[in-house]
């Protein structure tokens, strides 16, 4: 009973703070960026806008649920490869898009249709240039993704398409790997563990826990040149699967 009350209190406080911060923080951050954009180029204005979205996400995932939920981000990339990057991550929870705020890069995400339908957040995502691969043919998606990469903007993709119901790693869709082969930009696998119930699929109930995010080494063009999209996506999927097993203590590093 005591644990149940604690869980209810945690969720009540989190969601009250979430709503309050969103109602105050989003307009304030938007106003600051809009004012700065008067004096800078459109490109730099978009960069600041996307960074502001990351600041918002960091508060949501690190500050508001603390100390019940802790987020640990580790950069394991030793290649020192210059970006922009194509980030590919496993997908376990609705909190995954917020966790991408841990990445210290200017990024846009490839999402399903439903995030664009969220009040305020969906509108902000559209303004930031987020892509919905299901709302456009591949040629249009590839053109927009390539344009962003050429501008120096990294792209984040959850190639499973939908979050896992049981924590297992689903099969990957190939669209973003076709873009990688066409453009030659580095592909970086991301691994998320610990947020299966933060929140669990089908509910908004958050449970205490520790979320870990590992950024693996970049796969540069010379390593995958000549691959098919099928071979590249399976290579990346295996790297993520192996690292997840290490993170969850199922195998040694």
What features would you describe in this structure?
The chain has about 250 residues and is an alpha/beta fold. The chain has one domain. The chain has eight helices and seven strands; from the N terminus they run H-H-E-E-H-E-H-E-H-E-H-E-E-H-H. Strand 3, helix 4 and strand 4 form a beta-alpha-beta unit. The longest helix is centred in the first third of the chain and has 36 residues. The N and C termini lie far apart (about 40 Å).
Describe the secondary-structure layout.
Elements: H1 2-37, H2 42-63, E1 69-75, E2 86-89, H3 96-99, E3 107-111, H4 121-127, E4 131-132, H5 138-150, E5 154-157, H6 175-183, E6 187-193, E7 209-215, H7 221-224, H8 229-247
Parallel strand pairs: 1-7, 2-5, 2-6, 3-4, 3-5
Antiparallel strand pairs: 6-7
Helix pairs in contact: 1-2, 5-6, 6-8
Give a quick set of tags describing it:
253 residues, alpha/beta, globular
Quick structural summary:
The protein is an alpha/beta fold and 253 residues long.
Helix content: 40-55%
Instruction: Determine the mean pLDDT.
Output: 90
The major sheet is characterized as: 7 strands, mixed
Shape: globular
Radius of gyration: 18 Å
Low-confidence stretches: none
What is the number of domains?
1
Structural class: alpha/beta
Strand neighbour order, sheet with most strands: 1-7-6-2-5-3-4
Our count of helices gives 8
Total number of β-strand segments?
Answer: 7
* End-to-end distance: 39 Å
Share of residues in strands: 5-15%
Pattern of helices and strands: HHEEHEHEHEHEEHH
């Amino acid at each position: 009973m005591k644990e149940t009350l604690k869980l209810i209190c945690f969720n009540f406080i989190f969601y009250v703070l979430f709503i309050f911060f969103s109602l105050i923080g989003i307009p304030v951050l938007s106003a600051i960026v809009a004012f700065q954009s008067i004096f800078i180029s459109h490109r730099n204005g978009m960069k600041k806008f996307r960074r502001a979205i990351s600041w918002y996400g960091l508060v949501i995932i690190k500050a508001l649920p603390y100390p019940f939920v802790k987020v640990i981000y580790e950069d394991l990339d030793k290649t020192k490869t210059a970006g922009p990057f194509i980030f590919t991550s496993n997908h376990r929870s609705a909190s995954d898009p917020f966790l991408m705020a841990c990445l210290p890069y200017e990024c846009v995400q490839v999402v399903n249709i439903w995030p664009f339908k969220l009040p305020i957040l969906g509108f902000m995502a559209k303004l930031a240039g987020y892509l919905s691969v299901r709302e456009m043919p591949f040629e249009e998606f590839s053109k927009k993704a390539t344009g962003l990469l050429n501008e120096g903007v990294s792209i984040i993709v959850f190639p499973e398409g939908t979050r896992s119901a049981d924590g297992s790693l689903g099969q990957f869709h190939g669209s973003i790997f076709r873009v990688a082969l066409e453009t030659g930009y580095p592909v970086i696998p991301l691994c998320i563990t610990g947020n299966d119930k933060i929140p669990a699929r089908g509910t908004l109930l958050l449970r205490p826990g520790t979320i870990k995010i590992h950024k693996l080494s970049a796969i540069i063009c010379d390593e995958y040149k000549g691959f098919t999209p099928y071979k590249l996506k399976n290579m990346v999927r295996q790297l993520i699967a192996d690292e997840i097993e290490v993170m969850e203590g199922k195998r040694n590093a």
